[in-house]
């Protein structure tokens, strides 16, 4: 197990290094001149060149990359070109919205997918099982923006139960108001991601029904459903843990869109604004943190899956 963990850790570090290079180079090929943007339309060529020299934009790309990644290793993600605020500080502030939104979305997705996916498999061939399966396929195909707009119409406009947009100025000083503002966005992401996960849970459950140990338990006198619940669901749970890493990536992508729709002051909305403003240090830091988070989640999921699955432990 230790050897496997060290191997996966090495792959994680390599993945982060490759991601940092790709992020750095991709942002450098975008059209537009950051120095010209800062100088404004009235800036003279001398002023633009002075800004480029001050920001190190006139240095070779390898030098710029090494300076940036060296700062990252020291915990310095850079400073915003437009606000002068450390990128790490702004990320920490925006994470107070994005992280709770992601956690709440994941909880909603699991609450939807786990019981309904198992029920859909156990009721396969019956009207309710077919309804759940078809409904999950339909919801999984719904664009997250459209789903958010429909939920706004129902719960904010018609029923008036939840706010349609915004986040309390007091933030988490008023937890009830903060949670109410995040509930509708989290429902939007959770329902769509939950529908996708439900289909996987259903497939994993159907596969577990055909396993020898489940059929043996049924042959000893248990009903098919009881045998599945007692002996098959742990296998389904292991399969779901593996997929959760991909679900986290989907939730992050969904958060970027949903924070725009619901005007939430999170990392996703900040990222979109910074890309438009060509604030390269902030965009670099934001993309690297988001990418690193996804890779770390995948790393943790792999270790947890291997620790819980005796078949993988016996394989090495």
Topology diagram in text:
Layout: H1 2-28, H2 34-39, H3 45-55, H4 61-73, H5 87-122, H6 127-140, H7 144-158, H8 175-209, H9 212-219, H10 224-261, H11 267-277, H12 280-308, H13 310-315
Helix pairs in contact: 1-12, 5-6, 5-8, 5-10, 6-8, 7-8, 7-10, 8-10, 9-10, 10-11, 10-12, 11-12
| Chain-averaged pLDDT | 84
Number of strands: 0
**Helix content percent band:** over 70%
Structural class: mainly alpha
Choose one word for the global shape.
globular
The end-to-end distance, rounded to whole angstroms, is 9 Å
Stretches with pLDDT under 50, minimum 5 residues:
none
Strand content: under 5%
What is the architecture of the largest domain at the second tier of CATH?
Answer: Orthogonal Bundle
Q: What is the H level of CATH, i.e. the homologous superfamily of the largest domain? A: MetI-like
The figure for the number of domains is 2
Provide the CATH top-level class of the largest domain: Mainly Alpha
Query: Main beta sheet, described?
Result: none
How many DSSP H or I helices? 13
* CATH topology annotation of the largest domain: MetI-like fold
Oligomer: single chain
* Radius of gyration of CA atoms, rounded to a whole number: 24 Å
The string of secondary-structure elements, in order, is HHHHHHHHHHHHH
């Amino acid at each position: 197990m230790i050897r496997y963990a060290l191997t996966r850790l090495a792959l994680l570090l390599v993945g982060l290094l490759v991601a940092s290079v790709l992020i750095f180079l991709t942002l450098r090929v975008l059209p537009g001149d950051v120095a010209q943007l800062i100088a404004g339309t009235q800036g003279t060529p001398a002023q633009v060149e002075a800004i480029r020299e001050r920001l190190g934009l006139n240095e070779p790309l390898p030098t710029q990359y090494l300076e940036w990644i060296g700062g990252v290793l020291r915990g310095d993600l850079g400073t915003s070109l437009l606000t002068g605020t450390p990128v790490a500080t702004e990320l920490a502030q925006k994470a107070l919205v994005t992280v709770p939104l992601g956690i709440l979305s994941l909880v909603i997705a699991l609450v939807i997918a786990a019981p309904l996916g198992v029920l859909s498999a156990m009721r396969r061939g019956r009207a309710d099982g077919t309804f759940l399966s078809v409904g999950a396929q339909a919801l999984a195909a719904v664009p997250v923006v459209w789903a958010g707009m429909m939920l706004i119409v129902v719960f904010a406009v018609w029923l008036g139960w939840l706010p349609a947009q915004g986040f309390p100025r007091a933030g988490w000083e008023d937890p009830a108001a903060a949670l109410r503002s995040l509930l509708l966005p989290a429902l939007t992401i959770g329902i769509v991601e939950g529908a996708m996960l439900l289909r996987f849970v259903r497939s994993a459950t159907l596969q577990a029904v055909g396993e020898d140990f489940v059929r043996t338990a049924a042959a000893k006198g248990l009903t098919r459903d009881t045998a599945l619940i007692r002996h098959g669901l742990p296998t389904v749970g292991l399969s779901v843990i593996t997929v959760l890493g991909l679900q986290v990536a989907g939730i992050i992508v969904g958060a970027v869109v949903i924070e725009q729709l619901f005007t939430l002051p999170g990392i996703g909305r900040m990222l979109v604004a910074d890309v438009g403003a060509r604030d390269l240090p902030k965009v670099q830091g934001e993309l690297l943190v988001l990418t690193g988070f996804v890779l770390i989640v995948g790393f943790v999921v792999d270790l947890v899956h291997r620790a819980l699955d005796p078949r993988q432990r016996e394989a090495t």
